[in-house]
Amino acid sequence: MKEVHRAVLSEDKKRAAYRALQDRILNGEGRASPQQRARAFSNAGLSPPLDGLLGKVATRPAQVTDADFAAARAAGFSDDELFELVICAAVGQSARLYDAGLAALADAVAGEEDG
Amino acid sequence: MRLDVLNRGYGPGTKLLFAVIQLFSRQPVPDAAKLVFYRPDFYGSRAKEFTHEAMRGPSAWSVGDRELMAAYVSKVNECAFCIGAHSATARQAYRDGPKVATVLADLESAPVEDGLRATLRILGKLTREGKVGAEDMRQVLSAGVSREQVEDALAVCAAFNTTDRLADAFGFEMLSPEGFEAGAKYLLKRGYR
Predict the structure, then answer these.
(1) pLDDT 10s digits, B6-42
(2) Chain B interface, mutation test: which of A77, A84, A105, most B Cβ atoms within 10 Å?
(3) CB distance from B106 to chain A under 8 Å?
(4) CATH number of the domain bearing residue B63
(5) What angle do CA A24, A70, A43 make, to 5 degrees?
(6) Burial, A89: exposed, middle or buried (Cβ in 10 Å; 0-12, 13-18, 19+)?
(7) To the nearest whole percent, how much of chain B has pLDDT over 90?
(8) Is residue B24 part of a domain?
(9) What's the gap in Å between the CA of B98 and the closest CA on chain A?
(10) How far apart are CA A14 and CA A66, in angstroms?
């Protein structure tokens, strides 16, 4: 029983640490607006040229190029704004993967308990 | 790195720390380490906390297993820096180079336990396709992997899907084999905090 309890606690600690990171980058103080950060995180509603850079960060990061950053800078984004928005895009995609994995696991476990 | 602030935007205390690290490791400070020191209140502090918990916190998976998961996820993301860093760390943790190399070359024929193979397979699918189903998860559980182990593996997957993206987007500079070995030694001794 003690073992089980410890496992549950440590699991909560992992997810709590991840939630704290998400909460900070989305809702804490930043150079980019909270709206921009939320759009970067969800990879939705971004306009050019940010959609190019941040879309690649979310779905094909190995293809990001210097030109993607140059285009964003030419549109007036500072290094600090881009630092924040790239982080939001990266954490957003991983959060979707984490949630999808946990949901599939919960379904599998529920299915076993029903059957 | 592609953002100049990540190359130069550090205060005197951090610059001194980088100089000390460089002096003692006799290797350049890896970009992965620099990133978490830039405006650490925005990303670095909490990212280190989460990554440390996922990679070194309590788990039925060994440190070697979790480093191998990190390397495998990085392979699927084609992130050269993270493949180099975490395959070196997994090799040192396991004291087994061929095991890591064979898993990264061909997971299905690699000589690893069924539970670890099934877990790596699902992390690969999730990373590649963005989704997995209950049936995929049932296969992992039926290979003898506990629910807690799957949750732990998903935390590793989340940590490295973030780090891989930042490494590629910001353009982390590759290290020499000696640089990766020195980094691996540090990660095994001190973790990610």
Answers:
(1) 999 999 999 999 999 899 889 999 999 999 999 999 9
(2) A105
(3) no
(4) 1.20.1290.10
(5) 40
(6) buried
(7) 98
(8) no
(9) 26
(10) 34
User: What pLDDT, in 10s, does the model give residues A49-71?
Assistant: 999 999 999 999 999 999 999 99
> Tokens in use for A35?
């709206």
Per-residue model confidence as pLDDT tens digits over B74-93: 999 999 999 999 999 999 99
Q: Between chains, do A97 and B158 touch, taking CB under 8 Å as contact?
A: yes
Instruction: State how many domains chain A has.
Output: 1
Of B5, B50, B150, the CB nearest to A83: B5
Q: Is residue B184 part of a domain?
A: yes
DSSP A1: -
Contact B83, B167 (CB under 8 A): no
Whether B83 has its CB under 8 Å from any CB of chain A: the answer is: no
Select from A6, A54, A83, A85 the residue whose CB has the most chain B CBs within 10 Å, as the one to mutate to test that interface: A83
Q: Residue B77's closest chain A neighbor by CA?
A: A62
In a domain? residue B5: no
Q: Kind and range of the H or E element at A85?
A: helix A79-114
Q: What is the pTM of this model?
A: 0.95
Note whether B158 contacts A64, CB cutoff 8 Å.
no
Give pLDDT, residue A1.
44
What residues make up the domain containing B174? 29-190
